[in-house]
Amino acid sequence: MTLLVKNPLLKYSIERLLHEANPEGGTFFGGTAFNKMIFLLYKRLQENDVDLKLPYYWYLQGSLIEENQFESDVGKSRLYYITSDHSSRRMMSVPITSISADEKQIIDQNIQTLVQHYKQTNGYFKKGYLDFLLDDVYEKAPYDFQRAFNRKFVPFLNSFKTPARREIPVSLSFTCENIEAIETFLDNSLRVFPNEDMERIFETYLEWDDTARIAIEYDQKRIFSMTDSFWKMFCKNLRIIKNENIPDALIHEWDSLFTSTVFPEYQGTLHKLRTSLLKKWKKGQEDDKEIDNLVKKLNFISRNHLSKSEN
Amino acid sequence: MPYFLDSNVFIGYYFFCGDMWGNQAKKLVEIPEQKHSSDHVWHECFGVDGCHGRCKTILQEIKDEFFSAISLLTKDRYSPVDLFSVVTEEKWRTMDIIQELAARYEHDIKQLERKIRFAERKYESDCDDRLSLLKKPAIIQLHERDVEYPELFRTLKSVIEDESDVVILLDAHHVGGTLAGLDFVSGDHYHVYRNRQTIIDHTNIANVSFLDYF
Description:
The complex is a heterodimer.
Chain A: H1 8-21, H2 31-47, E1 56-59, E2 62-65, H3 67-74, H4 78-81, H5 101-117, H6 129-139, H7 144-158, H8 176-191, H9 199-218, H10 222-241, E3 243-244, H11 248-283, H12 289-310
Antiparallel strand pairs in A: 1-2, 1-3
Helix pairs in contact in A: 1-2, 1-5, 2-5, 2-6, 7-8, 7-10, 8-9, 9-10, 9-11, 10-11
Chain B: E1 3-5, H1 7-14, H2 20-30, E2 35-38, H3 39-46, H4 53-74, H5 80-89, H6 95-104, H7 109-135, E3 141-143, H8 150-157, H9 163-176, E4 183-186, H10 196-202, E5 207-210
Parallel strand pairs in B: 1-2, 1-4, 2-3, 4-5
């Protein structure tokens, strides 16, 4: 079903981008590339005073189009342009549009230079262009933490997976140097965590960070799944605070879902994981009188606080 | 003799620190005799889901302070002296401990951070282990009460001002209805032990023991 076009500027830009990037259609230019390139185009055009009003939010792999608002603006669903098999729609001719010639010229020029940036001289996309695209999108990410965590720490962790199937090797065993390197990535991420904007998840992040440091020494394979689940939770909070052109009602819905379900469930899962990892950590510790004395004092402080509040 | 444990026994055991209260609570939890308590006592200490309640809340607050200390050292690049000042100024619960560590490792931030992490982990894991033991039905049987006992409530309330103590005494009274010789053990001298005769006279509780004398 074709709906009315509320945002002809965006519709023209999308179709012109597909025409320029991959006119014959196919999987060379799939959903991820489309999402990232339209975002980069949106940002470039903003600098030229042309506002595409792209409905997007920051999510797991950078910017992501919000599909319902997109369909409402453009009159066609995103699946019309990028089908479920990740192929882009064949767009052999330049789309007809009602937008002004000046705007059309600015859009055309920007699309050409943007697409050329990722192509070789023979017209084909550069090998691994998607990675360059992601780097460029992440350059515009609102928080350093997104870069430190998802573009540095996560790829480093993934480098331990088998090259062919990207699976965790059965015999995975971090060396002392590996552990030190992972701790440095964790330190670097911690240094740039946006705690002012994300106060509500900061303490949980600190707990995750400490639990991750236990995992890399005592249950190494856990680090992959716990990093993945933390990033998902983080991004569900991120999309609430970093987005553009998305209806308030939808943001409110995300916020309610995060508060009522996503965050408490994540905390419960982390709590269980931490409890089981702490058992392994404890088994690996030798007697330490200094720590034992501190713990005695901590227990005394805790209990004393409760008995004081009782009286 | 079967025992009914009040919340301060759980608290003394969960935050075991080797003093009289802690040792008495540990002794009581570990003796082979039957031990009972109620869902009200459990929820007060650990919440309905085992993650809240008074014990879990204070544990979380202490954890958060330790993690904040690590964040100040790592993220905000505080020196041990800066950290010392902040915990003093803001009167953290863990002030004495962090001050002690910050002074001892003033010239070695990595070691300071490591000690803070290890102290927190040991504190938390010891508490977790003790909670696991308390959760075992073979150690303590928890009971739910389905009778209100309004008259008895009024009687006890007239001498014990704290309503939550009365609720727990009613729980013990309910258990004592099917269990002869029930001994109610509490560390609360003011509300409970001081009123032991009234409690014994009006309830199915056979005896009230003060934890320190147990």
